[in-house]
Design a protein that fits this description.
Helix content: over 70%
Distance between the termini: 68 Å
Number of domains: 1
Largest sheet: none
CATH class: Mainly Alpha
CATH topology: Ferritin
Order of helices and strands: HHHHHH
Bound molecules: fe (ii) ion
Radius of gyration: 20 Å
CATH superfamily: Ferritin, core subunit, four-helix bundle
């Protein structure tokens, strides 16, 4: 097993993390566009910036190892209820943001609530990914690990702060969304 083979295997793990960040940029961009909650919009704008920096850190490490950063996008983990469950939550009344032909769709507030739960799941998976990558980095021989580990730790810290922000703000989210969800079912 040559050092080249070992480095290639290590780059696979880096690219795996990078493909998750590539997908996260798309996800966060669409969340910023669609969320009705201004607090979410603002915090996610900050995290979009952080996610771009995370992409750059991983790309930098991969390039220094003489390999190519991937453009591919991972499938992010999703917490999806069975579609029949969401379909049951039909809109009983005309809601401004939803057109008539979409009557069988869940409320926008219900979708937002689901997506925020998915966001926390995604951040959790990113944390696991960076923690694992740091442990792998410590064990790969002949790496410039004094330079690589602080970069990975910085990204890990940003993911942890983002997940904590989501968790800390869950009461605000529920305060905003639940009354609308409940008022729609009582009509
Ligand atoms: Fe993240």
């Amino acid at each position: 097993m040559s050092q080249n083979d070992i480095n290639s295997k290590y780059v696979e793990y880096l690219n795996e993390a990078l493909s998750a960040e590539n997908a996260a940029v798309d996800r966060i961009t669409s969340r910023i566009d669609e969320t009705p909650l201004s607090q979410i919009k603002q915090r996610y704008q900050q995290h979009l910036e952080e996610t771009r920096n995370q992409q750059n850190r991983l790309s930098q490490i991969i390039t220094q190892l003489g390999e190519k950063p991937t453009d591919s996008k991972a499938n992010l983990p999703e917490l999806n209820p069975p579609s029949t469950m969401m379909l049951k939550k039909t809109i009983k009344d005309t809601i401004k943001s939803v057109t008539d032909d979409k009557k069988d769709n869940p409320l926008p507030e219900e979708m937002e609530f689901l997506k925020i739960k998915q966001d926390v799941t995604i951040e959790g998976s990113e944390i696991v990914s960076y923690e694992a990558l740091i442990e792998v980095t410590k064990r790969i021989p002949n790496l410039n690990s004094e330079q690589i580990i602080p970069l990975l730790k910085q990204s890990l810290e940003e993911e942890m702060n983002m997940k904590k922000w989501c968790t800390d703000n869950m009461p605000m989210v529920v305060d905003n969304l639940l009354p609308k969800i409940l008022s729609a079912i009582s009509k």
